[in-house]
Amino acid sequence: MNFLPLAFGSPFILAGLIALPVIWWLLRMTPPRPQEETFPPLRILAQVFKREEVPSKSPWWMTLLRLLIAALVILALASPVWNPRPVALSGNEPLAIVIDNGWASAEDWQQRVNAAEKLISDAEGTAAPIYIVGSAEPANAEIGPYDGKGAAERLQALEPRPIPVDRKSAMERLASTLPADTKVRLAFMSDGLASPDDTETFAKLDKSGHLASVLWYGANLSRTFALTGIDNKADSLEAVAIRPEGVSAPRTLTAAAYDDKGRRIAEAPLSFALGSAEGTARFNLPVELRNDFRLIRVDGIEQAGATRLIDAGSERRTVGLIASGDGDLAQPLLSPLHYISRALSPYVNLIEPRSADLLQSVPEVLDAKPSILIMADIGTLPQPVTEQLSKWIEDGGTLVRFAGPRLAGASDNDPLLPVKLRKGERALGGTLSWSEPQKLRIFPEKGPFAGLTVPDDVTVTRQVLAEPSFDLNDKAYAVLQDGTPLVTGEQRGRGNIVLFHISPDASWSSLPISGSFVEMLRRIVSLSQRTGAQENQASVSLPPYQLLSASGALTPPTSEAKPLIVEKDKQASVSINTPPGFYGNEDGLKALNIFEGANIKLQPIAQPTLSVGITPASYTSDQSISLAGPFFAVAAMLLALDTLLMLWLRGAFRRRMKVRAKAAGIAVLLAGFLAFNLLPSGIGKAQAQTQAQSQSEAQEQVHDDTKPGDEAIINSVSQTHLAYVITGSAQTDDISKAGMRGLSFALMDKTALEPGDPVGVDPAKDELAFYPLIYWPIDPQAPMPSPEAIARVDAYMQQGGTVLFDTRDQLQAGASLDPSASPANQRLRAILDGMNVPPLEPVPDDHVLTKSFFIMPDFPGRYEGSPLWVEASTPNASPRERPVRTGDGVTPIMITANDFAGAWAVDEQGNPLFPTVPNDPMQRIYAIRGGVNIVMYMLTGNYKSDQVHAKDLIERLGN
């Protein structure tokens, strides 16, 4: 029953309004309850007289109030509705409700349910069959037909799912369920987004002849957003979000990041410019905090698409870099880590230790929790470092090592190599050499480089060889054309060890300067974050760990979820059986998101052209309001008002009010005033004096930053000093000091250098970096240096310093590393076993050392006959064009047995202390000249290599 915009669901109840006149008559005839008064007998007697009593009636305004209450109750019982909803779909045909219950419907799901309930209510009046179809339901989901009650129950069981809709399958299930030649009234409740098969789907449904009419529900897309990817850069993490095309209003939201415990740890503004469908949220945080992100969610948007799950694969990996020596800042291309840094810096966070001492540098890098540690030409590792690295690898770390002269000359029992290496190296033109540079074969299918394009321009001229073994082919990640491995690796525990059999610079191969080197390193980085198929597996099955709900919340896995099959080099996608979430276990999780890939767009759905009429509808168009509740509420309030009025008429509110003075507040104010005035007047001044005194003391403390030993450090760096190792033997140390003093006198006499007094150093305690040359006499009777002291000397050598070892036993054995040699040589071997010693050779005739100041054919000392051993230089491609070999630096180690200090040693007056053997005055002169050459070589490096042009210059001068 309708009265303009007002309708009644039970109009027959309105007949109760006829009773209102009867109620009015009863209320008027019934007087109000008499007012109670205190009995006054004397007063009553004084005023006694006869008069006619007229009964009191109810006041007119109270009668009207009670009639209004009765009318409101009757109207409320009649189920009044303001602006009643018309029937959306007229007719008696079956009703088919197709609801998009994908991820985009979660935000306003209840509106869809309300609209569907009204449609079911309308259809229930015509007894028409009802079909309920969800477009994100399993293929075997029941769709009807239902009666009104069954349809309502099925609707309540339907819920949004965190997956894209599949309208094609939904419409096909509906068409296959309908009886032949049956037409239905179709109510399509879309989520507003287009799917790839929409045009084909609706055209096919139209041709089926099942449509009688279509009610098309559109959706409001202003609150639809999707996070499509993240980019973990060097200085920030960027989350990319999109919104439907056509939504052009500027919008600023907040994107929040959460860790694996659900704690909110960061937030950033997410802004969409006018007319733009893409926005970016930038998290400017340290990489350690960014790597704790496990999901990013747009605040206030309850959709699975507005939540981005993050697994270990999206973390910005921390990679530690350790080299056998410092790179030359003036010549970065010669640094062993230059090409590695350039290749990885755009993708990972690189850290390098401050110290070259492996006992300090490796723990320092591991404390930063790197995923990968790259070592460039590290030959010998101290035992504590080996144990620490082994545990780190077992726990999941990846160790990548590059070969070089030091690794080629190291011991063959290194446990941190994937394969056993042959001693020495294989070079073009040398032993076990090739006739021409080698190229690469196709990368093995089972290795991490499978699928990479083999570069044609990469050649290898030197490499370290692996000893043949039965599993060598399984460990080969890259192989040369002759079948020898270029890169090998193996898994240790949860981690990996990878070895490049070439140096990290371009001296052994052109691979480091090729684009393939970048891709190979990136593939190795992926070894440390692999959560899917391993390199030797085509696929892996990961059980569901946590699933994402349609509203964007992480929930425990359901019984419907199936394991996720991750195939190698193939992107997994969400489905009804594998919804978005985390798959795997606590040891490794893979995040599966709704959107993966680039160029993702959200397009609004277009209304199709059908042969039947399409009636547009909206989830918010139904503005009908039930007035039963408001009518009951007003009646209840009026009833309460009536009760209060009755109490007032009876005098219940007449009370004597006594006002008492409230002194408590005044007392509190008075107490505060007295307390303030009773404070000592000098307290502020005392506090000010104390603060001024503290500031003065702090300033004095800041300015006085000197520490014990600073004066000695300043003295060491202000003037060049030659140093010697204090062995603990007084006689040996005195000779060393006298020898360094004599060499200093010779330098002042022959060169412009004026060195300071020689300095004795204890490698275990003193800083060694101040001295360009340290002379170390080997005394087999002296205590063996500690591993820490040897490691500090090794770090000094890696940072550019040079140690001159002198066994002083040429007359007995000469300089040799043979374990059966003299006690001094055995002690020297024990010391060098703890160092990264490069391959050594006697000083060649064309070495810079022979021409750094004097032209020296050999280097005698107090004795003669022992060669001076230095780091082996790389053979030149054309010796005739470059007779002076530079070695691109200064040798970090020299070994002799000729007792240099004995030949250089002089007293305070400059007189030699020991005779030469044989006693030849020229031998001492050559020994001193050799010492001058060594010091000048230490200070100038390959400066004298310009003598390469000496022959041409002499010939021009002669002409």
Automatic annotation (TrEMBL):
* DUF4159 domain boundaries: 721-939
Q: Which UniProt keywords apply?
A: Membrane, Transmembrane, Transmembrane helix
- Regions crossing the membrane: 6-27, 60-82, 627-649, 661-679
Q: Where is the composition biased (Low complexity)?
A: 689-699
Sequence ranges of Basic and acidic residues compositional bias: 700-709
Pfam families documented for this protein: BatA, DUF4159
Ion transport found in the keyword field: no
Annotated region described as Disordered, given as residue ranges: 689-709
Domain annotation Aerotolerance regulator N-terminal: ranges = 7-80
Q: Which InterPro entries match?
A: Aerotolerance_reg_N, Class_I_gatase-like, Double_TM_dom, DUF4159
PANTHER family recorded: BLL2463 PROTEIN
Q: What is this protein called?
A: DUF4159 domain-containing protein
- Source organism of the structure: Brucella tritici
